[in-house]
Amino acid sequence: MKRLLLGLLVGVAVLLALVWYLNVRGEDKIDDSPPAAAPVAQQVTRGAYLASLGNCAGCHTARGGVPYAGGRGIETPFGILYSSNLTPDPATGLGNWSAGQFWRALHNGRSRDGRLLYPAFPYPNYTMVTRADSDALFDYLRSQPPAKQQNKAHALDWPFNTQAALAVWRALYFRPALYVQDSARSADWNRGAYLVDGLGHCSACHTQRNALGASSDMLDLSGGLIPMQNWYAPSLTSAAEAGVADWPLEHVVRVMQTGISPRGFVLGPMAEVVFNSTQHWNADDLRAMAVFMKGLVPTATAPPPAAVAVDAGKAQRGAKLYEHHCAQCHGDQGQGVAGAYPPLAGNRAVQLKETSNLVQVVMYGGFPPATAGNPRPYGMPPYVLLLSDADVAAVLTHLRTSWGNRAAAVSEVEVLKKRSGGAQ
């Protein structure tokens, strides 16, 4: 019995040592002295641009709050996480941080005091960011007006609120890394890969997550349902979803810069990304991102069904609802209006296997982002108070099976499940 107990203790000790090692590997000794001099203007300007690349303000600014002072609640399946104060206030923000400690947070996901950070802060992507970019971003943040705002305690369920559980998660799913140039690729492709994989953290939404909120491959970009938001981030490698391999390069640039293009438009969480981030990218980086996106290895997609059977009563109901509520903007044949209302005929967003986005748009409406290239976007009104679940199912089925569209019908139960999370 003593030998068995001793063996168990040794096994636990070895396991703990392994978890500890996997959490501190790749960490070099850092200078923990706060910078003595004010940041130079060139670094601040560069850091401001990097902050727009990463959309840092999007999470670290509460609605109506001081920019970068944190406090925004981020809902997860494990509870609510609150973003931290990134202003240079010494007591509650980054005022006593060093550039090395900030770099460690991005690269290793560890705070100034040694605490492990939750991956809602996307350090699994930011680990790719270079030290030079980290330093410029830090200089920009410490140039901001300090805001004395205490960080809110996370409201997470047990055991997810423990450092031990987070250490195990990181041991399983996190590996510090730096972006390595692919010598076989062009400079544009490499820059685009660095942006998409790193500060752009596109995989945070466009990659499927497991039950523990982790992805088996942070860079596969094959699409995934965004937790707690009831929006589906479509696959960037599938021509049937959001792949752009066959798009002209200028159309990829335009949709990321303005939110609309002749080949597509953005709504929902992606509209926020364009509004806060990509519309501010410079021309070279937009082009580089487009080159990378067009070069993604396409995934095979199943051919659409030859025909879709629809109940006659449901088909008639959907057609009438469409005529009454939709045809004025989207056209009798789903042709849309160029530059204003998107076509529904042949629209791959309408024919996605995952129907969450369609339900969200019909229920709660939406707008493309207001951008310099599209300052007054046309929007979709909400119908949550006008249409029942059965109505929504019928009209969506009409869209998905008319004008050459060949996608599965939508059931009333499916709509009920999709809307149960409410508007986000």
Automatic annotation (TrEMBL):
Gene3D superfamilies referenced in this protein's UniProt entry, alphabetically: Cytochrome c-like domain
Location of the Cytochrome c domain: 42-145, 187-297, 313-403
TM spans (from-to): none
InterPro entries linked to this entry: Cyt_c-like_dom, Cyt_c-like_dom_sf, Cytochrome_c-type_DH, Membr-bd_ADH_cyt_c
UniProt keyword list: Heme, Iron, Metal-binding
PANTHER family assigned to the protein according to its UniProt record, in alphabetical order: BLL4482 PROTEIN, BLL4482 PROTEIN-RELATED
Record protein name field: C-type cytochrome
Species whose genome carries this gene: Caenimonas terrae
